Amino acid sequence: MQYRLFDTARAELVFEAVDDLWYGPEQVTEISFVPPVSGGLEFPAMAPFTFDSGPTVRNGAVTVEGDVAAWPVFEIQGPVDDPEIDIVGVGRLIFRTSLAWDQTLTVDTRSWARWVKRDGDALPGALSSSGARLSDVSLLPGSYTVLLRGYDTTGTAKLRVLVRPAFTSF
85 near 92, Cβ under 8 Å? Predict the structure, then answer.
């Protein structure tokens, strides 16, 4: 009778963290377009005549908790043409794209991601160079006014701001 001895293999896992921070639960703020009241023609009127309210602006307050700056993720739900996200006192992200009613533009400013995607697909060139860079949009703890701009005749476009508060210790 023969016996065979088997060596056991040991797996070793090494984890690398992106940074040395602890992150809290995601905080979500939703900002919706509400078109201003308009209608009819004011005289004297000039051609071309328009019966919509033009570009709409809507703002909301985003509160960032934690000890250090956090990186927001923005989700814009269409329909909207040429959307802009303005974080007052921080910077403005300007996009040269159009979103249909069923499309979402996701803007990830986190240092390990930093991308712009439409419905999960990369959208190079959508971020205008006339606005801020994604690396400039970190938010220190505090409260911020965030404005959503763009052209939306339906008034149904939405902006979701997702932030995970960052802490230096557990």
Answer: yes
